[in-house]
Fold these 2 entries.
Entry 1:
Amino acid sequence: MYAQMVKTDAARVRSLDEMEPQERAFQERIDAGQKIEPKEWMPEGYRKTLVRQISQHAHSEIVGQLPEGNWITRAPTLERKAILLAKVQDEAGHGLYLYCAAETLGISRDQMYEQLHSGKAKYSSIFNYPTLTWADIGAIGWLVDGAAIMNQVPLQRCSYGPYARAMVRICKEESFHQRQGYDALMRMVKGTPAQKAMVQDALNRWWWPSLMMFGPSDDASVHSAQSMAWKIKQNSNDELRQKFVDQTVPQAKYLGLTIPDPDLKWNEEKGGHDFGEPDWEEFFNVIAGNGPCNAERLDARKKAWNDGAWFRDGLTAHAEKAADRRAAAKIAAE
Ligand SMILES: [Fe+2]
Ligand SMILES: [Fe+2]
């Protein structure tokens, strides 16, 4: 599958000279750093790319609540419980901003949910891994939210206005998520040897899936070149992964932990770390639905949707009755 993706990337980004006037004007606005707003003309490919990316991002926020929500009742102290509860609620809010941003592009919330529930839409592969211990919750904040920040900060400058503005609010909250995770781990590594071992075990399991969050190398990514030209994407996957590794290595050292990568070493010449290659076969396998928790996550989302049916039905019935009453009152007044 990896090799297949490399091959399909043959699609080339067209130059301004090759574009029709309308598309050229659109591209020139993007090149000039202007934002594109919902009602404005846009190429169909731009719209589709954004719908796919924003809805997948929204799904990731919502599904991302599940591995952590699982620990709210088991948080070790009242303070940690309040912090985790606030974080998980933030993720719900992120999902809602993003579903709203996607809706401005002409897709409905129901359609997006349908795509998630049927397996047509994807979400971040990281949320298909289980949270086995309390240290996993700290590791998720530190590494998963940390990687999310790396990905999301440049999206604040994305060319599509509603997406860029949603990201500004989201990034502020992500910083708190990263911080609370690191803080929880810091407390644990100062605890008993068993607690410290639990943190090291969490790092061992979350390190590689976190690196995979940036996606495969751009040479292998079907959508990268066009997304860069449209300023939907500003940095290559490898660039962001490198930044993440360079930021995280000293943080791991401060915690007294070992990153589970024998190839990891400082490269003086490039001013960054060399590191090993994630297992991309595992990545594609998890994306394809075969990760440890894919079925469980989707079942939880479908159950939430089905359990809410009575409420949606109630709202619709109330709206219909209210409309009937307004119509009757109008007739009576005439
Ligand atoms: Fe989030
Ligand atoms: Fe977060």
Note: The beta strands are 265-267, 272-274.
Entry 2:
Amino acid sequence: MQSGRAVLCSLGWLSLSLLSLLFPAGCARPANLSALRGREELLPPEHLNGVRLERDGHLNRELPQELFLGRERERFEEDSQPRRNRRKLVGIFSKVDRNNDQKISAKEMQRWIMEKTEEHFQEAVQENKMHFRAVDPDGDGHVSWDEYKIKFLASKGFNEKEIAEKIKNNEELKIDEETQEVLDNLKDRWYQADNPPPDLLLSEQEFLSFLHPEHSRGMLHFMVQEIVRDLDQDGDKRLTLPEFISLPVGTVENQQAQDVDDDWVRDRRKEFQEVIDANRDGIVTMEELEEYMDPMNEHNALNEARQMIAVADENQDHQLELEEILKYSEYFTGSKLMDYARNVHEEF
Ligand SMILES: [Ca+2]
Ligand SMILES: [Ca+2]
Ligand SMILES: [Ca+2]
Ligand SMILES: [Ca+2]
């Protein structure tokens, strides 16, 4: 293990961050690691900030918080001190309320959501710069499929030098079935991300859409195809409600699991019927799903704004007052403020 570790230590930042999970004490480079901590940059992430479905077809449960907080989200997670969170929330409220009438309208929220979505986009662009440097150590602005494959396999515990040598000599790599399957899927995506003329070299921009399909129409389309392929049972390339709400086999074991499954089904049914199936004909086509998945779509942002308002609009005026946001802070920020908000109210 020791010699393996020595080799591993000589890899780029990217592998380093992956390996820090396996060898927490080794290869410490704190300043840069903190930015990469706990993420698998080599692989396209399952979860995409601000996008309505995960890559595996699950609903993004953190969407309201991502769209409401943008990059502030981490600050809310790191510091959940109620007094400070309340202050932050009040600050956000006054920014969303552009016309200063102490209410957030659907239009104001829509505009805010678009700004926060743009923040997530910029964040991905910045992170991608770092990831790209790691897979393109010679800095010529292009990364080949083989270079990527070597880095990927190294992150899976293969010896980078050996793998590189074998690939160079066209020798067979002994890869287990599971890893091979991941690799095949990645290669499909690699081809998709490679703009014509195809040379299997990705530029920084192409690498961004490889990792983040929401940044390119073509890749978004490809992601939708993958999701439909996974959920479509009769092979007609469209989704019915039963197809969309089918549960993975063997998930229900006890009452608690049953309740979770019930929630899961209920939420998906609602999303299918009320949002994704735009023309309400009971079928979700690829086009409908792609529209729905597009984070830059203003119509989606308005829908989302209305949904967010509906959740917390206790006085039913179709707008959000500060009190309503504070009361539903868990929905908007992920941290509870309700008791605190009430206490403060009573104090004054
Ligand atoms: Ca307002
Ligand atoms: Ca179908
Ligand atoms: Ca439809
Ligand atoms: Ca209201």
Note: Confidence is low (pLDDT under 50) at residues 1-39.
